[in-house]
Amino acid sequence: MKILVIGGSYFFGRVFVMLAAKEHHVTVLNRGTYSVAQLGAGQITGDRKDASLWENVKDDYDCVVDFCAYEKGDIARVLEHMRGNIGQYLFISTVDVYRRGTDGLKGEETPLETRTLPGEAGTYIAGKAALEREVREECGKRGIAYTVLRPAILYGPLNYAPRESAYIRLMVQNHVLPRITDAAGSFQFVYVRDAAEAVLKCLLNPKAYGQAYNLCGEEILTYEAFFRELRRVSDVEAQEVALTVREAEGQGLPLPFPVTEEETELYSNEKGKVQLGLHYTDIAEGMARTYRAFRDI
User: Fold this and answer.
1) Do 149 and 208 touch, CB atoms closer than 8 A?
2) Coil, strand or helix at 38
């Protein structure tokens, strides 16, 4: 299979390229900040917002996997200017696109957010929601199959965002584990390799055509459950320091997960399991692998 990956050099995309390049012919199009040659993939260097770049992409691809579309027009530009043919377009969206405040676990048929929410997060959500409509409309006009994947909070080796790695670093380097005592929020993780394997299961899979899938693990977590997993996998002595949310914010400690019940939004993964046979690494195993990976660096 011939695959064009847009983005694909950082975390989720990088793990996908590592897996896909073992079996398929993979080319990564990105700005060239990170080389993917050691992953067994080819590389096209350029800015995706440059229409002339796409006019020079003349090869045919069975699948395009888009990890870095964030603003309205990002997908339309590819499809309007790319010279080669495309069999399937896979867009990596996010579970954050669902309308806020919907009761229960959000399934793939839950309405998307149409309001403009404040801040950078609101801009990000609005962009992803607009792009979901865009991929459906633009692929529909051209007779291209499309699939949308909506991952929850990604974690795992290579995740250098200030999430689990920030706490692991404090444990390993400073022998301290902060514990947030008044966080009431709940959230869901997805182990990065599971998400990458979900993409592989969608490639040229007619069951996935025209579909969207949530990607999230089985467990509903809290900050306390997250800290408990870190304590369980740790092989260093770390002093537990109790902090309130306000104290943690005052000390610059990242709080990357929902801290209040009002911020909590939860999702169903049933559709992907039934239709595609997706499965998820349990948090105990996934966090153990993640801890070992970061401990060693």
Assistant:
1) no
2) helix
Compute the mean pLDDT over every residue in the chain, rounded to the nearest whole number. Answer: 95
Specify the pLDDT at position 117: 87
pLDDT digits (tens, 9 = 90+) for 3-60: 999 998 889 999 999 999 999 999 999 988 878 889 999 999 999 999 999 999 999 9
The string of pLDDT tens digits covering residues 116-129 is 889 999 999 999 99
Q: Is 102 a residue whose pLDDT tops 80?
A: no
Q: Would you state the structure tokens that stand for residue 287, as one six-digit string?
A: 């966090």
Name which of 227, 225, 171, 165 is nearest 192 in CA terms: 165
Place of tokens 């195993």: 285
pLDDT above 90: residue 174: yes
Taking every pair of Cα atoms in the chain, the longest distance, rounded to a whole number of angstroms, is 59
DSSP 112: B
Which of 28-42, 80-94, 236-250, 260-274 shows the lowest per-residue confidence on average (mean pLDDT)?
28-42
| DSSP element (H, E) containing 25 | strand 25-30
DSSP state of 113: P
H-run or E-run covering 247: helix 245-250
31-65 residues labelled b (16+ CB within 10 A) or e (exposed)? eeeeebeebebebbeeebeeeebbeebeeebbbbb
Q: For 177-238, give the secondary structure using H, E and C.
A: EEEECCCCCEECEEEHHHHHHHHHHHCCCHHHCCEEEEECCCCCEEHHHHHHHHHHHCCCCC
Contact between residue 5 and residue 13 where contact means Cβ atoms under 8 Å apart: yes
Residue 282 contacts residue 218 (beta carbons within 8 Å):
yes
**Contact of 55 with 69, CB cutoff 8 Å:** no
If 0-12 CB within 10 Å is exposed, 13-18 middle and 19+ buried, where does residue 263 land? middle
